[in-house]
Each structure stands twice: as structure tokens, then as C-alpha cells.
Structure to design on (257 residues):
């Protein structure tokens, strides 16, 4: 409070340096801004966010908490604190701040997305699906959210739903190699449930092959797609091609059992 205008000058310099991609100079000026005006929630937030992005979680958490204490209505500060807290053994700590961020900004697609991953990590798959779905509701071009929603739909009763979401993700992001890989696995397995509850097993091997090939096209290091493609080729008795794919998978990742 001694020289608040001087604090603002440092804050603006920090923002410029951050945008220029110089975290060291940005950090210096954020700190100087806070020295001259300690109750500066914006500077504390941006400093904490920058420290998080530079993997300095301890200082990031401290500054984000200070920022929130001064301005509890900053949804992004709540969100970045939640991301830090996902590493804590108590999963409820991160959830508290994810939910606060979403209460403040119900259109925060990234918060739904990261909360979904946190729910999955905590073992709550149904909750994770709900949050991935919310992310796609808010941001309709969120390819990663469609993909992860589909990835979690492993029950035969969810086959068509998973298929639609994989297709949507690929429409948005054609070169999404991991999506092609998981979609290929779904099609190769081919387990779906009819409306009367009958389990059908109808592998779509040609479609599966196409998606494994696309995964490899977009990422030649996708060793799991080489493996799955090798298995399909061996079932077609194309043994030399199958051997080549399996050998390529091992050459990329020698630890792939």
C-alpha cells in the first residue's frame, strides 16, 4: 500500500513478460508487485498459475491460496489450486475447489474435464463420465472430452454411445491417434447389447484395421496399434505382415509384454 501505482507497473510488466514467454522475468515482476502491494489477488493468482506451470507446486499452492483468501470469486484460481491438490491422497480436497470453480463459472469446460480425470483416478467412473459429458455440453468441439467419455464406456450396453463419441472426436480432430487406437479396440471386440438385453458379439474387423492403421499413420510410435494390428492380421492368416507389426511394436517399446 506504500506505492500501489508502482505495484501495478510491476504487475503489467510481469504480464508482458509472461506473454512473451519469459517466466523468470515475469516471476520477478509479479514478486515485486506483491512486495509493494501485498493484498494484490491478481498478482498472486498469476504468479501462482505461472509457478504451477513451471512445476513449482509448493509456492504455487501458497500464492493461489493467498489470492483466493483475498478474492474467493476467481474461478481460475480455484481451478489451478484444485489441479495442484489432485496429487494429495485426500481426493476430496481437489474436488472441493473444482466444484467451487464450477459454481463460479458453470461454463468452465476445462474444470469439468480435469474433474472427470480426478474422479476416474479416485475410482468413481460414473462420476467421471458425467463430468466428461458436461465438458462436451459446454464445449462442443472438445475432442479430448468426447474421446475420454467414449474410452470409459466399456459396457456392451454403451457400445453405440461409445461409437458415436469416438466418431465425434475424430470428426473434430482427425489425427487423434489415441482415439483411433481405442476406437479400433472397441470395433475389434464388437460386444454390444440389444434392446432386449441380448449380448451380441460382432467384431468389425475391417473398420478396426482401418483405425489401427490411421493411429499408426498419425503417430508412427503408437506401438499398441502395431500390436493390435498384428493380432488382427494373424487372425486373417497374413502371418508375415502380422510378424512385421508385432516386431515393430517391440522395437518401439521393448518392455511391451
Amino acid at each position: 500500500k506504500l506505492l500501489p501505482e508502482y505495484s501495478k507497473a510491476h504487475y503489467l510488466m510481469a504480464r508482458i513478460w509472461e506473454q512473451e514467454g519469459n517466466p523468470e522475468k515475469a516471476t520477478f515482476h509479479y514478486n515485486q508487485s506483491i512486495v509493494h502491494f501485498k493484498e494484490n489477488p491478481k498478482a498472486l493468482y498469476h504468479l501462482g498459475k505461472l509457478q504451477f506451470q513451471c512445476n513449482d507446486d509448493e509456492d504455487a499452492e501458497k500464492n493461489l491460496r493467498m489470492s483466493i483468501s483475498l478474492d474467493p470469486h476467481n474461478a481460475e484460481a480455484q481451478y489451478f489450486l484444485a489441479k495442484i491438490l489432485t496429487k494429495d491422497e485426500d481426493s476430496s480436497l481437489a474436488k472441493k475447489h473444482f466444484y467451487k470453480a464450477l459454481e463460479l463459472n458453470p461454463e468452465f469446460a476445462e474444470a469439468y474435464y480435469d474433474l472427470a480425470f480426478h474422479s476416474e483416478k479416485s475410482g468413481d467412473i460414473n462420476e467421471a463420465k458425467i463430468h466428461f459429458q458436461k465438458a462436451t455440453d459446454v464445449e462442443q468441439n472438445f475432442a479430448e472430452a468426447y474421446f475420454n467419455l467414449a474410452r470409459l464406456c466399456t459396457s456392451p450396453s454403451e457400445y453405440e454411445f461409445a461409437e458415436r463419441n469416438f466418431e465425434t472426436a475424430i470428426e473434430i480432430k482427425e489425427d487423434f491417434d489415441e482415439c483411433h487406437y481405442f476406437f479400433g479396440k472397441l470395433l475389434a471386440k464388437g460386444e454390444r447389447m440389444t434392446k432386449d438385453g441380448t449380448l451380441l458379439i460382432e467384431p468389425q474387423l475391417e473398420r478396426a484395421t482401418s483405425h489401427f492403421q490411421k493411429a499408426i499413420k498419425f503417430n508412427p510410435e503408437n506401438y499398441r496399434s502395431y500390436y493390435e494390428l498384428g493380432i488382427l492380421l494373424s487372425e486373417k492368416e497374413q502371418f508375415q505382415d502380422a510378424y512385421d507389426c508385432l516386431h515393430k511394436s517391440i522395437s518401439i517399446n521393448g518392455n511391451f509384454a
